[in-house]
Amino acid sequence: MGDFSRPDGARHPHHPRSYEITAPGEAGEVRAVRELGRRLAAAAGDDLFGCSCGDDDGTRHATPESNRLLDPLSPDGIPARHRARWAAAAPLGLREYAAALAAGAEDPAPPRGVPLSVAFGWLGAVRPQPRDAAWLLAERAPLRLLAGAATAELAWAVRESDRAGLEGAVRFFAGEEFTTRHPKRRRVPDTARDLLLRHARSHRPGDLAVLERRLLRAPEDRIRRS
Fold first, then answer.
1. Which of 223, 211, 108, 219 is nearest to 169 (CA)?
2. Is the pTM of this model over 0.90?
3. Dihedrals phi, psi of 157, to nearest 5 degrees
């Protein structure tokens, strides 16, 4: 599905430039507004020779119906539906935060009292529609919660994480939110480090080399082994 740009330039801050519509009902709605736009354009005398809108997202011949359906800022549109479904599926304790992001907040206050292991699990969970209009939010939201946490807190959360949490933890620790930290802030105790490397070795081998290079041992571990 292609990008939708409003004439006034307004955009949802977390809307991806491309996304997929796979639900049969929603795909049917898109086909209907696309055909309506073509019919209205033809009736108005527009030259449709060479028009490729059979392959585009339905916005080449915009109508009020296509604007309502495809505009990322439309509360009745398909992007809003995708974001609402994603927010409703957020872990308990994070749904209000997810709903604020889905509504267009750029930087809502993070929730208090939610363990970081929950954010790891949120990042690592398998989504049934991974490339829908909420995929950018699904990437950003848990990373925002994790990026500001101290390494010691993140390492403890690794120890509390289940398999989905470890999946998210490996993604986080191998990503730029962690790998660009100062070396002093990349020191991870042995237990958490071993859990991350073991999971990467078995399930995310592409991240293993980065983890081995960027996860530094905590000073207290070196002292304990001496």
1. 211
2. no
3. -65, -30
Q: Give, in degrees to the nearest 5, the angle at Cα 198 between 188 and 189.
A: 15
Per-residue model confidence as pLDDT tens digits over 18-31: 999 999 999 999 88
Q: pLDDT for 136-195, tens place per residue? A: 999 999 999 999 999 999 999 999 999 999 999 999 999 999 999 999 999 999 999 999
Distance from C-alpha of 81 to C-alpha of 163, rounded to nearest angstrom = 29
SS3 193: helix
H-type alpha helices, the chain: 24-43, 64-70, 78-88, 95-102, 116-124, 135-147, 151-159, 163-173, 176-179, 190-203, 208-214, 219-225
> Are 129 and 20 a contacting pair, CB within 8 Å?
yes
Residues 80-130 have pLDDT tens digits of 999 999 999 999 999 999 999 999 999 899 999 999 999 999 999 999 999
Q: What tokens appear for 191 in the block?
A: 């237990």
Of the candidates 151, 157, 150, 144, the residue with the CA atom closest to the CA atom of residue 109: 144
CA distance 81 to 125: 20
